[in-house]
Amino acid sequence: MLIHLLALSALYHSYILAYLHDHPLKWCALVVTVCAGYFTLRSVKVIALFGIASLLPPIVHLITLEDAPHFPYDRHVVNVDLLVLEDSHLRSWGVRTLVAVREVTQCHELNQQSCSALVGKKLLLNDRSGTVLLDGQKVKGSLALKPPLGFINPGGFDYEHWLFAQGIYAKGYFVDPPLIEASHVNRGWAATLNRTLSARGAHGEGAHSAFVSAERESAILKALLLGDRSGMQESDRQLLAESGLIHLFVISGLHIGLLFGVVFYLLKVLVIAINMALSVGLWRGGMTAGVDFCSGLAFLLVWWYVDQIGYPISATRALLFLAIWLMARVLKRELSLLQVLSLSVFLILSCWPYEMFSYGFWMSVLAVLGLSLALIRKPRVGLVPKESTYGVRFSGWLSAAQVLVKAQLFIFVLLCPLLLSFGTETSVLSFLWNLIFIPLFGLVVMPVLLMSGLLFPVFSSVALELAFFLSGMLVALLDAVGYANQFFPTVSFIQGTSEWWLYYLVAIILLLPLKRSVRLASTMLAGVLMVVTPKQSNDLEVWFLDVGQALSVVMVKDQHAFIYDAGFAFGDFNAADTVIIPFLRQREIKAVDVLAVSHQDLDHSGGMVPLLDSRWTPEILMQNFVEVDGFSGESRHCFKGQSFRWREVEVSVLWPPSKQSLESLSSNDSSCVILLEFKQQKVLLTGDITSQVEQALLRAYPDLFAQVIQVMSVPHHGSKSSSSRSFVDAVQPEWAVASAGPLNRFRHPHPDVTFRYQEIGATVINTAEMGALLFELDAERDSRFKLRIFERKIPYWRTRRVQE
């Protein structure tokens, strides 16, 4: 009972924290708490006592986590001694290296308190000079550091939380080439295997088809054996997410359990063989002592493996779960799967409280919970009640297959709402793919790969050939999965917290051992919820997305979108894949009607091609700088005088004057300037025009600028060369939005520009400080735009983007 009280207390206080931070996962925490309480606590008095006792942990965590030190919000140069923690990862723009600070030799302008806090902290360095460092090296150098910042958008990956969970304190780059002080390169198993796989993939050695295939095979092997998915192609990541197979390509409970099982049974066979050869018991306690010995050795090997790959949190969770199971066995305590899960959850949330906001953590908890529910429902096919609580008893292959299908169904029902509620699209075949791939991975792929990995130090060539052959088969299977998915639709979940939480509650009711009539009613309710789309409350939404030192504005109406500018591109890293497409998916946009790209600079056009290649290919493309091959929609040039109606919104192009004028205009001054008007509310989108174009617009449209512009994008991100005083005085906007990057090297928006807008009474908002911004108009309730900040409450891991 104490174990369950502690576990439920941890779950409950995670819900409290999530609620206080207005995080969507608060409902997940609450549902898991209620479900676990159903099987553990039956007394009302005990539940009341549990609720009172659970108030203390959230208070403690709120105090400790809210006061956790952050790197100051500014750029600082420091001289440091570093220890390289892993080999540099090659990227299209340079290299990425993870290091730890051994000593700070010179702080420069950084205050002493922050300077001292750097010692022992992890730093992520992005170096464009191409300096490649190896794990274990000690280097000296001068670093330019800033806080670990990411984009803040609906549906987007919370990169800043991921950095926080990885313990990364700051990001930066080498000001000058570093000096390698000592070259004690890590020659451990994981480091050596990683370098070997990277070299074979880069040079195409062992390829079973083409060079690209060898690179894919190497990336897949690194993901499966080392938990490193950094080398995987974006197309493979999307395919795995869409097919619901992404959980198989991280070092999780499946991998740890399989490694333990493979080693345990090999050692057990060895013990039996020795006993048979000697004709006497090897231990006085008989085979029970031998099994315990094999379990201990297998656990130590698993621990060594997790240590080699750097203790990723997913593997650490599984290792802790395994340790609790083994401890119960040693102490002769009968613990069910649900009890082990309860204690593991408590310890994980106590040691790593930031995991309460981790999608991976909750997916792991729900997966084990689903497995527990599947095994509990039938006493004859479940955890062995008396002989042992450490195994599952089946009456033949058919029974085992039934349990496998049932367990997979339960896990799918629990995980699917969680994935879909955060905007992830899932193929309707995902259940089938998991039903095929989980046994395939469990029985064939992972045992063979783990054995090849363990044999790598002794028989490297044979082990690598076997691993690459198996990865080649996986590449072929993934290609087949991608081909099959093309013929079936993807599913996106209903939008809105209350709707998906209600569906989740229905899913839990379906899994509980309740009356058939209750389950039937719940099934009918779930079917209605899956097909009913909530009414769109706003007539028009204008989103200024957080894309750093770039621009992307998305107008949403009736689940259709009008996009102005497509953000940045740095090599294969672009705003479409990282920000715009996840936003469209999360907002359940049915189609992109218009994509208008102001000009060719990559901070405005970078995401255009990836967006054209996605399922949200626009029907109309407006741009002036390139001919797009293979575009199936309508292509238009963006010139003065064009006007059309988009879903009751009047769209007018104000600049540039003509196609001939483009030859005499700079790239910035050729920006397509667009005015949108809806129910007497006007939005002006200006691209990167300079003061010369601003004056031309004032001369060309004196009557237009005599009217009030409610919302406008600040020209050229707030550059001093734009937003002239006469233009600002003429436009008189209520809100002026500067789309800039945090701590950008241009110092946009310039203080003089900000002052000009503030002087005429406009509210200046910077996406670098606030993240994504929403201006919404609901004509039934009000006649003017209302501003909504996407992230109303700042989570404790978020750096406050205000310079002191």
Written description of the protein model:
The protein starts with a helix and ends in a 15-residue tail after the last strand. Helix content is 46%, strand content 16%. The longest helix has 26 residues, at 253-278. It is α+β, with helices and mostly antiparallel strands. Helix 2 runs parallel beside helix 14 (359-376), helix 8 crosses helix 17 and helix 12 packs across helix 13 (337-351). It is built from 26 helices and 26 strands. Mean pLDDT is 80; it is low at 207-212, 377-394 and 493-498.
Summary tags:
804 residues, eight-stranded mixed β-sheet, 26 helices, 46% helix
Question: What's this, in brief?
Answer:
The chain is an alpha+beta fold. It contains 26 helices and 26 strands.
